[in-house]
Give the backbone structure.
Amino acid sequence: MFSKKDGGESATDTPRNPTAPAASRSPGSASGSRAAATIGPSIRINGDLAGEEDLIVEGRITGTVELKSNTLTIGAQGQVEARVYAHTILVEGTVNGDLYASERISIRQSARIEGNIYAPRISLEDGARFRGAIDMDTDNEAFRKAFGTASAKPAPAASAEVRPSSGSETAGKPAKPAANGGGSASSSSNVA
Amino acid sequence: MARDARTQPLRVPLLLERLDALNEARREHWLDLGRAQPALIERLARGPNRLVVADFAAPDTERGLPGTVPAVPSTGFDVVLAWDWPNYLVPEGLSRLGAELARCSHAGTVLHALIHYRNDRMPETPQRLRLAADGRLDEDGVVEHLRPAPRYSPKALEKAMCHWQVDRTLLLNNGMQEFVLRLRSTSAH
């Protein structure tokens, strides 16, 4: 149920390219059409980071990350000390902070997380280290504050993932905001 | 160890019963003193529950908890999973563990534990006990050394952990006894 390739996830839908230069584009965006931007291993960001495209972090981020309609992948070399809001969050590296995902959080075997996680679907591979709270109820104040509304609950269909099947709401991704053309990430951060 | 001769998979019926009783309408707060377990998360995610993982590797023999419990809910936990920890605590450590856990619980909170009871020897260190997706309980690692087991009886547990009373027990096929204790109403904080 929690094998490395479960839930339809694979290297193909969680693009990683640790050797890519900072802010490069790697092929195969998790959200489909666009390639994900990559923050390379030598990059450090202090501050708030927001955007409307998928992002892979192999560097270090301290502050806040908001990719509410997109996928954030914290790669094996990535170190995030931040509050993170994203549509989907994949963790292979180190996180110290709270993670909010409107769709799913996947914690891989190599992950080290200290903080609280909030998502309607959560999967964790055996061997991953986690300390904190896992909240499977997205119909609460914290989630509403983060995403403006409670997350759509998953349908009760069989899945390899963790799914709270409460309520009668329909499953699926929340609607994305209108495309902004370039969709590039914005940041009020200090890049070192 | 009798475990080597065990042919049947180890199951923890009392814990499984509690997990099976979870429903989508009721939110429960669970505390796992050990490490994060995929199958436990999967089970709890069938409802709007909240699981706190303390990620402690082992108890402190005399102090009980080796650190602070994170993210304690204001209402207290409904269920606490102590796994095989009590076996590795002296009575004073058990007493401190019981008191610490009582502080983050409420009247009726359930404390689940596994006690080496039939065998007088047990692994030198706590095992990483993992609930599998099919309800089996897996024990990680090779046991190289054994040590005497305290073989706490229900009465001995209640005496050491005075805030808690034994609710149910069940002898498992590996010689461990599965315990469900409840926080006494007079001990609720």
